[in-house]
Design goal:
heterotrimer; A mainly alpha; B mainly alpha; C alpha/beta; B: mainly alpha; ABC transporter involved in vitamin B12 uptake, BtuC; two-stranded antiparallel sheet; two-stranded antiparallel ribbon; 14 helices; 5% strand; C: alpha/beta; Rossmann fold; six-stranded mixed sheet; globular; transmembrane helix (chain B)
Chain lengths: 320, 327, 514
């Protein structure tokens, strides 16, 4: 019962810290480089990371429930592969979209069921899922398949004009819709609140009579669905399908979620945190490319350091 | 104990049998210039780095931990050595480079141990830091280039033969050493005690921090040696791709070998079998003419199958003979 | 006050002939239990008496092997806590079983939240939660995180959740164990309100004062069997305690004579002054001499385990000093205690004692090996000799050093744990409930061993829920009640009745005999 002036619940602090970091990074960029502080640079952050935003939203569900999903990067690759080869085979776009989303959610469902029914660690099961999805890409084709479908290319290249001459793509719109939907589900539905409850204390959630089974399996379905959707966005972004797409993207997604203040132990975090995390990662990349002399590997090092800082901060907050 | 190794053994036997039927040449061996060649030798040679890393991982997992950073550490080891060797052809430089690399790896292991045992961070996250940053560091060392070397002494580590490939000899030597050290000292018992029941171990006066620290350093050094093998085999350091996903293979090898990710009892023999299964699988897929990338699908199937067979809940569900667990 | 005397209403819950066995343990044997509307019913019994099991059978966590559960006249068989809740049986557990990361309102209403347009209607939810909280007189912001509130408030929120649905039966399983006096008073006020509304309350507590203050009726269990059902007003504390702890003399009488009372006059080994830890045990003074057996008597929750853990450094004291061999000793953890020759065998054999997946051999040498560090292994021969010696000395079966400890019976597991510490040749051996849940034969062996050790000069701190055992074995008895040391008695002249009197306390003056 403290009476400190701005009454911000402490649970929002990690997210606010991430947002502050984003503002700071962006501020540094604006101060140092001409043309950094433009609306289009911000828009590009979203355009270049739309798929990652969607992945992070799905990953947030899994991590909030106390699990982890290593398969997302591979499911993205598989989705690009199915999209590209489906279109190449002349399937109509809607069919391709449905097929991709169905494959992603089914994979998620299977992993969730194995994790829950047989009590095998999520780490191992989703690791197997990661291998399986990646392998299936190569079953379809070992080569990169480019997308030539007109409709698809049109959607990919269509630009939406925003005031101020800033343009974004449909990818951005979809990603933001996903974030909104994820927020609604997590905060406004029993399912979403149960995700938090399970992550906070699974035994309590069970004793409270909450639908833990549905949630523990459901988060992997959601993550699978988000991964396949992210795969579609990635296909639009790359206009090709390839088994080596999105290698290591699961780590980016996990890093974004953790940097966004979500506790890996589960139960604490927000979808918006994941979004902020993605933007921070994106800004760092943009900063490094503006710098020009700094090499790309610094991105990895900086991400590692950021991870460390946020984990250390969370650690001290938990201990408090 | 023996029972635990039954399924991995069967899996390996099945794989070998498959090879015997499909490609009998897999089993043919020939001597050439004092070196042994053949399918089986290939399995051993290519599986050596995975086995080595899996050995370190086994001990880490036994303490209820996990080390995701081993692949990155392997890349760093290769990068540091190759950059140190540069254009030199002398054995001394190569040895010095490798020594520097391994010391550095030990330091990285200390770092992981510090995060896990010192700060009490979940192992999976603690090592994710180095997994992400480590590759960046490796690229920093090589300045983003693939550094090639031409040093016969260094070449021996990964590609040399003493009848058998030197790399597998190193791995088996380490396996023997670990087995010897963990059994002859109390390390093995204390590792298992910490993994099975951390609180009881604390109350019995076990220094669990020291133990945890030790296994992470050991895992990092193993990763370092594996990194040397990988880089030496191609006489180059590729910071981006060297040891990519090898941590996952290693974890799989450990799990297939019957060591539970929940910590506790571990089996080095199981890990050896697990590593052999993974490598035989990869080689088999290759020899029967499927695209090597598709190996991943088979890997996934084998992992899930072995995990299911070993999971108590799955056993109960599939009504295997009842495992007696008197309390 | 509504103890129904003339014409009692029919019971809302009636459990008849309930039996339940776990592997190796008969947890409940033919237990009858009745709970009437509008009463507070205390369920009494020591550890292992079957209280929790009975409660869990009622709330759908366990299915009984035999017997029937009748709720409001209908026979029921719940297969999950959710079903029991649905039928009007709500439970509040000892540890707050809520989610600290959710808001107070969510914790009260999640699972039956008000909805609007398919989503959760948060304003309505907060309002309803506020109403439920107001009903029990708790005024906190329903929108705040549960974790921000102290445990006592969380406990009240758990009660609010329990009564937010139509609740006929409210089970409170040790709700007071982490509350202070003011908070307990608040809880009791709420319990009275609910009782007067006609809710049947099943109450478990180890604090006798509380039981006598709040309950109308009580049921006593011991070793999984029903001992008796009484109106609280009809049974005095001594009778109650006697029923709870029982008097199983039988096989143990033989030892009584052997352990003739001695007056050890060895040097003072350990001296604690004003040692204490907030929320665990009030500061106490204690002196233990070499060759002396000091018994700790007190009911569960009286602070006996907490005291032992402080002496071993398993928990850190936040006040007081400890002197061993005349030199001050700061315990930073178990290792420093072990180095000073102190050993502690925990009451929680499985959780804090044995390493179940390791062999008898490894468990036996664990403490000694840990003290030496991993680089200096015990030579194989020494190890074998030690193991052989203690397998024989303690009659551990099977006498196979490679057998996994998890496969042993309770008594043999306890002996392995004891042997682990004997190997280190401690000068002070702290035994917390070393004879709980083991068969009579093993029990007698362990008691014999304690006597022998003391005769050889080892100091022993002996904790047991069985007063007779404590009285028989101890040279000196320290009595604890409500986390305070209240008396110290000379073991040679004390009888069980005298100790019971002190534990029962109540209005009895605090006296220090000896």
């Amino acid at each position: 019962m403290t009476t400190l002036a701005p009454r911000v619940p402490s649970r929002f602090l990690p997210v606010l810290a991430t947002v502050a970091l984003f503002v700071l990074a962006f501020g540094v960029g604006s101060a140092r480089y001409d043309g950094f502080a433009s609306g289009q640079v911000i828009a590009n952050l979203f355009i270049d990371n739309a798929f990652l935003i969607v992945l992070a939203a799905g990953m947030t569900f899994v991590i909030l429930s106390g699990g982890i999903d290593l398969s997302v990067g591979s499911v993205v690759a598989l989705s690009t592969m199915v999209t590209a080869s489906g279109l190449q085979a002349g399937w109509p776009v809607p069919l391709v979209v449905v097929a991709v989303l169905l494959i992603g959610s089914t994979l998620g469902l299977l992993m969730g069921l194995v994790i829950h029914k047989f009590d095998i660690q999520p780490f191992i099961v989703t690791l197997a899922g990661m291998f399986l999805a990646r392998g299936l890409c190569f079953v379809i084709s070992v080569e990169s398949v480019s997308i030539k479908d007109r409709t698809f290319r049109d959607v990919a290249t269509a630009a939406i004009e925003l005031p101020g001459g800033v343009t974004i793509t449909y990818n951005v719109v979809i990603a933001l819709l996903v974030v909104a939907a994820a927020m609604y589900v997590l905060h406004r539905t029993r399912f979403g609140r149960t995700v938090y409850a399970v992550g906070g204390s699974e035994s309590s959630a069970l004793l409270m009579g909450l639908p833990t089974t549905r949630v523990k399996v459901g988060v992997y379905v959601i993550s699978g669905l988000c991964s396949s959707l992210a795969g579609l966005l990635f296909s639009l972004y790359m206009l090709s399908g390839y088994g080596l797409h999105a290698v290591g993207m699961e780590l980016d997604a996990i890093a974004a979620v953790v940097i966004g203040g979500t506790l890996l132990a589960g139960g604490v975090g927000y979808v918006l945190g994941g979004l902020a995390g993605v933007l921070v990662l994106g800004t760092i990349q943009t900063l490094i490319s503006f710098q020009g002399t700094l090499s790309s590997w610094w991105t990895k090092i900086v991400i590692g350091v950021l991870l460390l800082v946020f984990i250390a901060v969370q650690r001290t907050m938990v201990r408090r | 104990m023996k029972n635990r190794l039954l399924w991995p053994l069967l899996a390996l036997a099945a794989l070998l049998l498959l090879n015997l039927i499909v490609t009998p040449s897999f089993f043919s061996l020939r001597m050439q210039d004092g070196a042994l060649y053949g399918g089986l030798v290939d399995v051993l040679k290519n599986g050596a780095p995975t086995l080595l890393i899996a050995l370190g991982m086994t001990l880490v997992i036994a303490t209820r931990g996990i080390d995701l950073s081993v692949g990155a550490v392997a890349a760093i080891a290769g990068a540091v050595t190759c950059v140190h060797i540069g254009t030199s052809g002398s054995a001394g430089t190569a040895i010095a480079g490798m020594a520097i690399a391994l010391v550095l790896c030990a330091v990285l292991g200390l770092w992981n141990g510090f995060l896990v045992a010192g700060l009490g961070i979940q192992p999976i996250i603690a090592t994710l830091v180095l997994m992400t940053a480590g590759r960046g560091v490796a690229m920093l060392v090589t300045e983003g280039q693939i550094v090639t070397v031409n040093n016969t002494a260094y070449k021996q580590v990964g590609a040399g033969f003493l009848v058998l490939p030197i790399s597998i000899l190193i791995s088996l030597l380490v396996l023997g050493l670990v087995a010897f050290v963990t059994r002859k000292t109390a390390l093995g018992m204390l590792i298992e005690a910490v993994g099975v029941n951390p609180e009881a171990s604390r109350l019995a006066g076990v220094r669990s921090r020291t133990i945890i620290w030790t296994v992470y350093v050991f895992a990092a050094v193993c990763a370092g040696i594996a990194g040397l093998m990988i880089s030496s085999n191609v006489s180059a350091a590729d910071a981006n791709n060297a040891g990519l996903w090898i941590e996952m293979d290693a974890i799989l090898a450990v799990v297939i070998g019957g060591t539970s990710l929940a910590g506790g009892r571990y089996s080095l023999t199981g890990t050896l079998l697990g590593a052999l299964i993974i490598q035989t699988l990869t080689t088999t897929v290759y020899t029967i003419g499927v695209a090597p990338e598709v190996t991943l699908v088979f890997k996934a199937v084998v992992v899930i199958a072995v995990c299911l067979v070993q999971a108590p809940k799955a056993r109960a569900a599939l009504s295997f003979r009842k495992v007696a667990v008197p309390s | 006050m509504t103890p129904p005397l003339n014409e009692p209403p029919p019971p809302v819950v009636e459990m008849r002939g309930i039996s339940l066995a776990f592997p190796g343990v008969k947890a409940l044997q033919d237990v009858d239990f009745r709970l009437f509307p509008g009463e507070v019913h205390a369920l009494m019994g020591e550890n292992g008496a079957g209280k929790s099991t009975l409660i869990k059978t009622l709330t759908g966590v366990h299915r009984p092997d035999g017997g029937q559960v009748v709720l409001g006249g209908d026979e029921v068989a719940f297969s999950s806590p959710g079903e029991a809740q649905h039928a009007g049986i709500s439970t509040v557990y000892q540890e707050v079983n809520l989610c600290a990361n959710l808001t107070v309102a969510e914790n009260i209403l999640l699972g039956r939240e008000p909805r609007r347009f398919g989503g959760i209607d948060f304003p309505a939810m907060r309002k309803r939660a506020g109403e439920v909280l107001a009903r029990i007189g708790v005024h906190i912001d329903p929108g705040s995180s549960l974790g921000e509130h102290p445990i006592a408030v969380q406990q009240l929120v758990a009660i609010a959740r329990a009564i937010a649905v139509d609740c006929r039966v409210l089970v409170l399983d040790e709700p007071t164990s982490s509350l202070d006096a003011g908070e307990v008073a608040e809880l009791f006020r709420i319990m009275r309100v609910l009782r007067d509304e006609g809710v049947a309350i099943l109450f478990v507590s180890h604090f006798l004062d509380q039981v006598y203050e709040i309950s109308d009726r009580m049921t006593v269990l011991r070793n999984g069997s029903l001992v008796g059902e009484h109106l609280t007003a009809d049974v005095d504390r001594r009778t109650l305690i006697a029923q709870m702890i029982g008097r199983d003399l039988g096989a143990l009488e033989a030892i009584e004579d052997a352990a003739e009372k001695r007056h050890p006059d060895g040097p003072v080994l350990l001296h604690a002054s004003e040692l204490g830890r907030r929320g665990a045990i009030d500061p106490f003074d204690l002196e233990i001499r070499a060759g002396e057996v000091v018994g700790l008597a007190g009911l569960l929750g009286s602070g006996r385990t907490e005291l032992a853990r402080l002496l071993f450094g398993a928990d850190r004291a936040d006040s007081g000093r400890l002197v061993v061999d005349g030199k001050p000793l700061r315990l930073r953890g178990p290792r420093s205690a072990i180095a000073a020759g102190i050993a502690f065998s925990s009451e929680d054999r499985k959780g804090e004692g044995l390493v179940a997946d390791l062999s008898i051999r490894d468990n036996l040498v664990l403490a000694m090996q840990a003290a030496r560090g991993w680089t200096r292994p015990l030579p194989r021969r020494t190890k074998d000799q030690l193991v052989e010696k203690y397998l024989k000395a303690l009659d551990i079966r099977p006498a196979n050093p490679d057998a996994l400890v998890r496969t042993l019976s309770g008594g043999n597991q306890q002996k392995v744990l004891l042997a682990r510490w004997l190997v280190t040749e401690p000068r002070l051996l702290i035994l917390d409930e070393p004879t709980r849940g083991i068969d009579i034969g093993a029990k007698a062996q362990i008691q014999q061993l304690v006597t022998t050790l003391a005769a050889e000069g080892t100091a022993v701190l002996f904790i047991s829920a069985e007063l007779e055992e404590v009285v028989r074995i101890s040279d000196r008895i320290v009595v604890l009640r409500d986390r305070r040391k209240i008396a110290e008695l000379d073991g040679s002249v004390t009888g069980v009745d005298e100790v019971v009197e002190l534990i029962a306390g109540g209005a009895a003056p605090e006296k220090v005999v000896s």
